[in-house]
Amino acid sequence: MINNGDKIAVVMITLNEQKAIRKVVNDIRSVDPRIEIIIVDSSTDDTPKIAKTLEIKVIRQFPAMGYGPAMDVALKASNKEVIITLDCDDTYPVDQIKSFSNFIFFEGYDVVDGNRLSSKPKNMPFINFIANYLFALIASVLFFERIYDLHSGMRAYKKKIIENIPYLVDGVSLPVELILWPIRLGYKVKFVNINYKERLGMSKLEPLKAAWWTVVRILRARFAKKKN
Fold first, then answer.
1. What's the whole-number mean pLDDT along residues 184-208?
2. Of 67, 73, 158, 228, which is the most exposed, with the fewest CB atoms less than 10 Å away?
3. Residues 132, 117 contacting (CB under 8 angstroms)
4. For the domain with range 5-223, which CATH number is right: 3.90.550.10, 3.40.1280.10, 3.40.50.700, 3.10.180.10?
5. Which residues pair with 60 in a beta bridge?
């Protein structure tokens, strides 16, 4: 059990994660069984069936509409005070849910970002690591703050700020805007180094598409008009 566990939701988008979902859900419950767990699922395998046996909330988005629309639904699917995003492939350290939530509840942070890139993860191709590092460096120059990981799948957000982030729903690489807009809007952001493990199941990453959308989202978060 952790402090304020009943005020936390973990949200994930799933696409054919039948190999990992049971372990990930059980790991979350081992941290605190009161945590609400929600998936937005576009799978063609047994992921949603397994999820229902685990008694978590399943929101089906089928046929798949893409990463952005799925994450948009996930971020808004719970009314808990803290929303934690997580990839459902067992790559992220679920045991750090406690520290992420404590930074928000007790130290006043609005967003906590899990930085995978303090050193090269063993399971990340070198070219991907260099690209991620360079994109983060470019964003750091444009936003006048050292930013470490634009694409992390593990973050914690105060629920009340999500509606104030004017991100573009369509397209991939949405995590880029979900970290850059809070910085531009003056929210208090914490970067925490995490260990990034080898995934269970196949990767769905499309590198060239992700790179293009990363550039689009960096420029949009820096230069698009803020909400009134």
1. 81
2. 228
3. yes
4. 3.90.550.10
5. 41
